[in-house]
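G., before I forget:
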Amino acid sequence: MDQVLDLLGGLPRVALSPSHLLNGEVTTPYGQDPSPEGVEAAWRDLAGDSVLPPWILLGRRDTPNGTVWRLSWCPPRGPSPTLAEVALPEGLWALERLTAEPDPEGWNLRILASPQGTWVGLWEGARCERLHGPYPSEPVGIARVRAIAAKNGVVPTAQIRGIWKVPSPHDLRALAGSYPESDLLATTESVRRNGIRADHTAVARVLAILAVFATITFGLGVLQATAWSLRRSQDTRLESVQPLLDRVAALRKSRAALRDSIWIRKEAMAPNSAVDRILSGIARKIPEGAGLQVLALERSDSGWRVRTEASLSDWNQVQPLAQALRSVPGVARVAVASQARSGSGVSAVLELEGRWP
Amino acid sequence: MALSLPPGTRGILRSLAPWVAASLALQTGLRVVWLDQTRSLRANFVRAADLRQIVPEPAALRARIASLENDSASLVTRLAWARGRTIESSDPGADLAARLVPLLGREGWNLQRVRAESKAGWATLDLGAQADFGQILSGLRRIRCQPTAIQVRRFSVRPSGHGLLGVELQVAGPAGVGP
């Protein structure tokens, strides 16, 4: 996954490559960094007209003559790794690891066992004086570096063993950025590989975009399938109850038709007019000695209406008669429309309203 | 076969290719593929939700059918009853008169005037008679107890001499078109 992300990010691949270490020095005016020309001149002094190899700076020492830069040239010790755009000498990573160790006082030897062999360096405190290797075995390396140190009058008082760690791509890229002059690849090869890497990055980015497109499309497709499945299940449910729904619709239609037919015949549903009950109810309330002269009944919107003329013996019978008529079943209202003397008695016109009993 | 390109073209292609691909993918996705997918997705979800709410359970439908069948049966019974109370005849007025006139005659009503007609779905019988109070009550009771629906629209009594009462009666019954 990290490799894919590095490819998408267009980051170069950095690998370690086996190399020799040839120590040397370059003196510059005080405070100035060594120039490539100065390093190349120092290499010519050491190796003649051979091609200048990459180099790594080990440390510096200020002297009255200027700043003395200690460096190691790193001629390749075999073919460079094919799957990398930057090839760093393994000694550079060994230097990085040994420099990370705690710094004791005075001269000390620092030893690191790597897959290529054993690296032995001479440090004064935190300052690297020189780094040698890789040696086939640790005793050989220690003996040789002690001999070189003794030749210069130095006796290391401590030995520090570093721990080899396989560098991560991030570590290697940081190292390549810090030591651009130490790339073991030739310039033309480096340009060619970077071009191929850029091609791959472009293709990978296009593929990543297509993958994102496909992923979103697939995700929506899954949701589509889910929605279709939900709809299909509901459609199936609808189909399964469709006969029942049709039956309900037919029954509703039939019921509506029946209701319409009944509504048309609503008059036939009403009970027959019970005029006899009203008439007998009224007749029972007529007091002794009194009588009804005329009685007229007609239908009203809410029931019936009666207008009648009663002959009574005196005035005092009018109101009791009206009150008695109110108790007749179906009578809702009784009113005395008029009353007048008629011969020896009283004639009262009464109006009654009510519902059919 | 090596592809020969003008200097710099390869670098431009490398830089542009991802952007072109992203643009095409975005355009295609937003305007065509994803648009159609989301439309279809939404339509199916909405339809499923609608159906889930609308389509009732079979048990509820069966209960509804049973209820409607009961209602229909009850309505059919009522309709049959209503039809039985309707005068189904080619001349409903005459039919109504044929039912009531003999009946009232048997009750002692001395019929002096009878007029029957059919109008606007109603059979109407208008009559005048003489009878005593008991005969009037009895006749009206017989009218009330008729199996045919009969409404008394107007009714009046007044003294008519000889101890009798003059009766004016108008009755009506709903009429259907008979065979």
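Strands of chain B lie at 87-89, 110-119, 122-131, 151-159, 165-177. Chain B touches chain A through 70 residues (CB under 8 Å).

More on Monday.
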